[in-house]
Amino acid sequence: MYDRWGAYGRPIVLLHGLLSDRTMWWPVAADLGDSCTAIAVDLPGHGDSAPREHYHLDQLTHDLAMMISRLDLRRAPILVAHAEATMIAETFADHYATHAVLGVGTTAVTGDDLAAVPEPYRQFAVPREDRGLRAAYLESLTWPPARTRTSTPAPARVHAGETPQPHLGADRFPHLRDPCAFAEMLRSLR
């Protein structure tokens, strides 16, 4: 399941972290407007996407590639991934044409993190509690993947000769603290 904004320009695929869903990206996607094609995805078992028996990294990556292929985007996407979804984005970039990969945030969410998010956006930052789904994902998602990597993975990696952006791992919700500024930073990667 996914939501799509815009029909032209560089595609930006927005991947949520474990126990969140695609709605966490709505404020940024709405701000991106028609300047690009923004796609907010529900990973399997999250939001409106059906659960699975297993959540293997290679299968999740393949499924993301098939979804992107069916969208007929015509340009390599920028992948923006929150927390654990960074593993999926990095693996995708290892196998498929990708303009850039940007990792955002970390896994743990505390009350202090939510207090820093403006009130209208807090609803998008609250993960649901599902211990079974968490355990199934964490059992299957291992970093680094079993294959040999040519470089050390990093939370924020930019491909295709782009200038690396500042490390965004320290702030768990930079896209919700200031969606307009975050959207502008994504536009600059195009």
Question: Could you provide a short overview of the structure?
Answer:
With 190 residues, this protein is an alpha/beta fold.
Identify the notable features of this structure and list them briefly.
single chain; 190 residues; alpha/beta; six-stranded mixed beta sheet; 8 helices; 6 strands; globular
Low-confidence stretches: 146-167
String of helices and strands: EEHEHEHEHHHEHH
Order the strands across the largest sheet as they lie in space: 1-3-2-4-5-6
Annotation field: number of helices: 8
Biggest sheet: strands, sense, closure?
A: 6 strands, mixed
Which structural class do you get from the secondary structure elements?
Answer: alpha/beta
Radius of gyration: 15 Å
Range of helix content: 25-40%
Arithmetic mean pLDDT:
82
Can you give a write-up of this model?
The model is unreliable at 146-167 (pLDDT under 50). The chain contains eight helices and six strands; from the N terminus they run E-E-H-E-H-E-H-E-H-H-H-E-H-H. It is α/β, with parallel strands linked by helices and 190 residues long. The chain starts with a strand and ends with a helix. The radius of gyration is 15 Å and the shape is globular. A six-stranded mixed beta sheet has the order 1-3-2-4-5-6, with helices on both faces. It is 34% helix and 14% strand. Helix 2 (57-70) packs across helix 3.
